[in-house]
């Protein structure tokens, strides 16, 4: 049995898939989640997939005393993967203080508690939002691309948290950290037992696509058709959530088991840009379902085009995105069908 890993936000979309991959790799997992944007039943799904039930504590990472008790209860925690954060760009503009409190205080608490409880490493869930709209000569984006002023309080919390970790390690904190800047996670587990389940109207493209295909949403709006891209719609690097989850396992192995630098940064993406229109057309092709969609005006704050150069992660972590867009979109559709069968949506 490998080490014990604390996964904050572990019942969420990326956290649950990462917990599955950690357990498949032999790690013990303790999940901490306040269930503000997820459901405790996800723990049942993780157990169904892996045959192992992760420990679960319903705790808010902003509660220092409660987190201290978690570390005392599980004294063998060696590493942390920190997903727990508020993550809706639009909401962060409306409620900036909520985002600064949730996203920054939670990290500071963990960093303060790590030396006290002899926790060696942390993987921080960062984002390509730190790059803003890269200049044309910075596409695809490498880890050395300039950090741009954030477009939202959400994006700003990612940048600030990266700086907090950097400053903490620079000060001599006895920990190691990897910042994973990932691009656009999509899809669901191939079993369709866990997947993306947004509360209310989806903020992300793929759940909106699948809900429109299912008839839950009347129409999909594609924001903007006059961008400087081949078909006029925005371009993103869409990565399969299971591939992304496996990158966290590789990163944790590196932090805990190798003589690596105290702080490292990796882009986690496919290396390929895909337009919104291509997503719609590919989804229709692989599922055979015609979508009711239309163009709408540009949305404020949307970046025109960004995709990763994942070469560093490929070489240093020994990780690569392997799943095709077609298979990824099909997994998202199977998940939506499963939700309908269960009467959830």
Report a brief summary of the structure:
This protein has 345 residues and is an alpha/beta fold. The protein is built from eleven helices and 13 strands. The strands form four sheets. It has a seven-stranded parallel sheet, sandwiched between helices.
Which key features would you list for this structure?
345 residues, alpha/beta, Rossmann fold, seven-stranded parallel β-sheet, two-stranded parallel ribbon, globular
Please tell me about this protein's structure.
The chain has a seven-stranded parallel β-sheet, with helices on both faces. Strands 7-10 form a two-stranded parallel ribbon. Strands 8-13 form a two-stranded parallel sheet. The protein has helices at 13-24, 42-50, 64-73, 89-94, 96-116, 153-170, 205-214, 241-257, 276-287, 311-317, 325-341, and strands at 4-8, 28-32, 55-57, 77-82, 121-127, 176-182, 184-186, 220-223, 235-236, 238-240, 263-268, 274-275, 293-296. The longest helix is centred in the first third of the chain and has 21 residues, at 96-116. The relative contact order is 0.14. It is globular and about 55 Å long. The protein is α/β, with parallel strands linked by helices and 345 residues long. Helix 6 (153-170) links the parallel strand 5 and strand 6 (176-182). It has a domain at 4-186 and 238-271: Rossmann fold (3-Layer(aba) Sandwich).
């Amino acid at each position: 049995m490998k080490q014990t890993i604390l996964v904050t936000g572990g019942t969420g979309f990326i956290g649950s898939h990462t917990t599955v991959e950690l357990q498949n790799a032999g790690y013990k997992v303790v999940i901490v989640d306040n269930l503000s944007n997820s459901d405790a039943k996800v723990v049942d799904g993780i157990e169904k997939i892996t045959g192992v039930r992760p420990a679960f504590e319903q705790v808010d990472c902003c509660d220092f005393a409660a987190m201290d008790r978690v570390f005392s209860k599980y004294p063998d925690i060696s590493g942390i993967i920190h997903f727990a954060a508020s993550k809706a760009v639009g909401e962060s503009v409306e409620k900036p203080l909520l985002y600064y409190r949730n996203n920054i205080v939670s990290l500071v608490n963990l960093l303060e508690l790590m030396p006290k409880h002899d926790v060696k490493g942390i993987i921080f869930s960062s984002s390509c939002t730190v790059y803003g709209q890269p200049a044309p000569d910075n596409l695809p984006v490498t880890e050395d691309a300039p950090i741009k002023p954030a477009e939202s309080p959400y994006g700003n919390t990612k940048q600030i948290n990266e700086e907090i970790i950097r400053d903490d390690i620079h000060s001599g904190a006895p920990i190691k950290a990897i910042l994973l800047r990932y691009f656009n996670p999509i899809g669901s587990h191939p079993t369709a037992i866990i997947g993306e389940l947004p509360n209310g109207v989806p903020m992300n493209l793929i759940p909106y696509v699948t809900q429109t295909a299912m008839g839950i949403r009347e129409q999909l709006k594609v924001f903007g058709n006059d961008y400087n891209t081949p078909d006029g719609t925005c371009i993103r690097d869409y990565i399969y959530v299971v591939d992304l989850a496996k990158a966290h396992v590789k990163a944790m192995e590196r932090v805990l088991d190798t003589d690596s630098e105290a702080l490292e940064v990796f882009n986690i993406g496919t290396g390929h840009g895909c337009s919104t229109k291509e997503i719609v057309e590919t989804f229709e092709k692989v599922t055979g379902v015609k979508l009711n969609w239309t163009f709408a005006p540009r949305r404020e704050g949307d970046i025109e085009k960004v995709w990763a150069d994942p070469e560093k992660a490929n070489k240093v972590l020994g990780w690569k995105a392997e799943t095709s867009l077609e298979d990824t979109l099909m997994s998202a559709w199977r998940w939506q069908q499963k939700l309908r069968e269960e009467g959830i949506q």
